[in-house]
Amino acid sequence: MIEGFYTAIEGAVRTATGPVGLVLIGIYSFLIAFVLPLPSEIVLAPASHLNLGLPTEANLALIVLASGLGKAAGSVFAFHIGQEAKRSGPVIRLVRQSRFDVVSWSEKKAVRLAQEYGYIGLAAALSVPGFPDTISIYAFSVLERDYYRFAAATFVGSVGRLVVTIAGFAGVTALL
């Protein structure tokens, strides 16, 4: 059932058109920041058929902006959840005792980036295409306290990821 939901959401984003399509891309980006384990790069798919009366490059810019804003908003929501969980000793104990030991893994990877590079580390982690955003966002949300810097870093990282993806596609297309 959940697989069907994920497939439906991805399909809706891939075929998004018009201003409603941009809103759908923003909502999708909001959701993948804290709950959906789906690729954020998929938002680039409708660029050529968005039907806004603009060139594809302008559509891409609007998609990147809508996605970046959506992911920043979703990240702030995740950040708030992380702040609340941080105050709850039982929640952290439960996560540490879980079979997957998410806290330990996070401390080894994403948390080390946060401690060493702060918000720049978060933006860099989120700029890597294909890497799950949710893990980085929650790992950083437990360590950091500034909502505005957190939102800015997630926006920059989200935009960075899409720009890296677009540049990669352009490079591959040029080679072909």
UniProtKB/TrEMBL annotation:
Pfam family, one: VTT_dom
Keywords: Membrane, Transmembrane, Transmembrane helix
UniProt xrefs under InterPro entries: DedA_domain, VTT_dom
Name used for this protein in its record: VTT domain-containing protein
Organism encoding this protein: Halapricum hydrolyticum
Membrane spanning residue stretches: 20-38, 58-79, 117-141, 147-175
Residues in VTT domain copies: 39-166
Tagged with keyword Membrane: yes
UniProt keyword Transcription regulation present: no
